[in-house]
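Forwarding these from the shared drive since the link keeps breaking.
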Amino acid sequence: MYEKTGYPSEAAVVHAERIRGVIGELQGDVDAKIKRVLSAVFADELIKTEFANTNIRYTAMVGEVAQALLRCFNLPDERLGLMTIGDIDLPEFAQEVIDEIVAAAQLYERKFMKERGTGYDLAAKGMLSARKGVIDLFDKHYNFSASSGGRGAELIRKFADNMCLTAGGMCALDSVASTAIRLGLKDGKFNRFVSPHNSFSTWHSIVDERSAGGKTSCVHKLETKQENMLHLAADDIEDFYNRCDLEDEEQAFQTTWCITPVGNPSGTKMRPEQLKSVCEKIVELEPQAIIMLDCTYVRTLKPEKAQVLMRGVLENN
């Protein structure tokens, strides 16, 4: 029934064999059969119970069980692509960029050690030449230099001046959260973190921790709609401000938005106009809001698609 390759896992096979008995005979065309399989797996209470409060592991198990069932029913399992936790099979063009970044990092380390005796930047932002090097690498993917209505060179300079190099994504997210709270307090405002409820819980966990139970900030997780590919739309932004500002008219807020143009783990991506209109609506309703775009998975898109997705935001800065 299943290939003995170690994948899917034994636990997934056990669930699949159990759920197969519940499904019975499949009816309809291929699409209808696949939908029936997926619906049965997502509706399974035992899997939900076993992986309660562990969203990443739950999603991974659902994917494994569904793929095992597709094979069992001789349905095309390539319709369902699985992503392992803590790892990702990068497309070839993205792996080439990663290799280039690693080589550049090693080069800069040797250069700074020779020139200064240390690679540490006292401003904790990373050496300026290294920051410029990073932007040059990203430029090949996002095409910053051709964006911004002919002001690409100015945009690249701004990025290099203002960016920070960190030891990893978690450090960067924690720094953003801590800085947002400090900026709000400095201006006499209470910070609120807002993000769509469509991604892994890493960011949510960090802002929950930094919010100290609501003492330093508050956290809002917005539900998203299937019609918008589980991403925010401009209407969601307007609804949030209308609802929340009415609830607390006396409190001055600073809002920090975290938006994922390409979802993690859904893999769905925002439409270019959708991303642009969401950012524009935020700026319209709160000009001083902080907008953080988590572009980690934008890097898995082909460069030309990433450029189309991000162009509207880059040209409106």
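-- next protein --
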Amino acid sequence: MIRMFVLIAAIFLNSHAFSQENCCFEETLNFLKTETAKNPQLDFSGYISSWRQSCDSAQDCRFPIVLGGGLSCDQECALPVGSEQNKPVGFKLRLPVSPGEAGVAKFSREFHFETDSGVEWIEVNFVIYAICPRNAVPDGEDPCPLRYFQAQIEIKGDARAFCGASINLDDAFPFPVLMCAGVSRNDPSRRLGVSLHRIPLK
């Protein structure tokens, strides 16, 4: 009887822990929004990785793609190839609480690429704005329920590009997921880019 009780208790505790770790996504977001209203600062953390992509039509068919039920090597560009991966990034963003206010955070990283013509490099400048629109009206505990975010990536160096997106809290936190790339100034058939992601790449 004692052994049976211990077994049942163990199963209950494990299932309880599992349910806590896998709680409803919507409930988690509601909790996050409530905490955001109480403490208007978020700690962002994630990763940034660099990659290059060849768009030379004469390339080898290493990654055939499926077209119309068959395999084809006629794609314009090969799949991106990773360069420097999983560089950790963290920053704090103060959230606006009054209409017309905005908070800002930024970071910069430099990446290098080994190519047939030598080493290329890019500088990546990331900026994110938290914006409270002028027409925002407080709703319960949240002084700015219409708050949204603008994320921008600027690439300089051996490639140039500017990418941006307007996103909500769910897409911005704990880290925005974005891609940005520019054409190499040394080889127009090559793209140099970066990806922002929440989970380390393997």
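Confidence is low (pLDDT under 50) at residues 1-22. Residues 40-197 form one domain.

- D.
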